[in-house]
Amino acid sequence: MKSIQRTFKKLKIAAVSTLLMGTLTAWADIHVGVILSLTGPGASLGIPEEKIIQLWPAELGGQKAKFTVLNDNSDTSTASKSAMRLIAENKVDLIIGSSLTPTTLAIVEVAGAEKIPVISLAGGGAIVLPQDGVRKWAFKLSPTEAISTNRVFEHMAKDKLKTMATIGVANSYGDGFLKTVEALSVHKGIKLVGSEKYNATDQTVTSQVLKLMTTNPDAVYILSSGTAGALPHIELVQRGYKGRIYQTQGVANADFLRVGGKALDGSFMTVAPVLVGDQLPDSSPIKKIAVDFLKKSDAAVGAQNRSLFGATAWDALLIADHATKNALKTAKPGTVEFRSAIRDAMEQLKGFVGTNGVYTMSAQDHNGVNELSQVMIKIENGKWIYQP
Predict the structure, then answer these.
(1) CA 206 to CA 180: how far, in whole Å?
(2) CA proximity to 42, closest of 112, 100, 128
(3) Which CATH superfamily is domain 145-271 in?
């Protein structure tokens, strides 16, 4: 009888131990919330981002991780509600997203107030500037508007182009670029002769394009993102504009090439090096990691579907992996201390090589990229061609 009781006691202890270990394991998992624009105007950005995130193993920093992906429908209200849900219901340690600048800003307002770090996949400088308040918890990977714009102005100067007009999407992304163009043009010897805006959901931009063409600019800089950037580009070509057309990297995806078609041929764009990673010179510090990523991406989604935005998601995961590995040394997932340690680790990145650039961040700089983050490319026959 005593033997039976001892056996039962051992089984009971074992069962309790197993239960506790299971609870501790679940509690110790890192939980990452991902908010992407999988429908709406930003879908051409969000869909390739999701495909790349699905390639990542279910761990970060050597610790098991759970990823919860939500769709913000390219809508700021939905993005805000999604962030609230991830924080309240899923107790996330980190949020990655969103695909667009306006939706990211909505997420940062919510997450920053709760001291949840956010790695944005969008490009607007307003996500991290000024570096105060809720933005202390926000990081972004795309280069500054100034880096992109300077590259365009240098390209124009090489061919002695002197005048520029802009047409941009009427949101924080387009406005951020426009302010930069206005500020830098006077120092670069470029005269800004006209600026027009349109909404990402507009079906026509005929009146805006006709106004710009009356100024006869040497170049038109389209300040837009996603497939919405193709609309003014196609209109300019159809109206017979013969000058040079530039785009920002906010449109650098296969859907943009598909929608724009032959109208895009001969135009230029500043982009992160990864998009033409296999065309980069061997001297580029980014080439190896960019080519390694492209091999994974091409095998998963096809070389014809290469996306700068998928690569940005990969860099976000690389940085999250590095940051959580460091955070785990001092704190446990699910705690305020762990979330703060993730943020601190990202602030301390020094010379971290990603597919989009080399990141060196600080408490004053939550972007951390330099001129290496942008190269000039030309679009020819539906392909991205590196311009040395």
Answers:
(1) 25
(2) 100
(3) Response regulator (3.40.50.2300)
Burial (0-12, 13-18, 19+ Cβ within 10 Å), 75:
buried
pTM, two decimals, is 0.83
Element (H, E) at 70: strand 63-71
| Measured distance CA(141)–CA(132) in Å, rounded | 18
pLDDT in tens, 166-218: 999 999 999 999 999 999 999 999 999 999 999 999 999 999 999 999 999 99
The 10s digit of each residue's pLDDT in 267-310 is 999 999 999 999 999 999 999 999 999 999 999 999 888 888 99
Q: To the nearest 10°, the Cα dihedral for 180, 185, 190, 192?
A: 60
Q: Return the closest-CA partner of residue 31 out of 71, 88, 90.
A: 90
| Nearest CA-CA partner of 221 in 284, 168, 151 | 168
Q: How far is CA 53 from CA 313, 314, 385, in A?
A: 7, 7, 26
Cα–Cα distance between 229 and 63 in angstroms, integer? 40
CB atoms within 10 A of CB 61: 19
CATH class given for the domain over 22-143+298-371: alpha beta
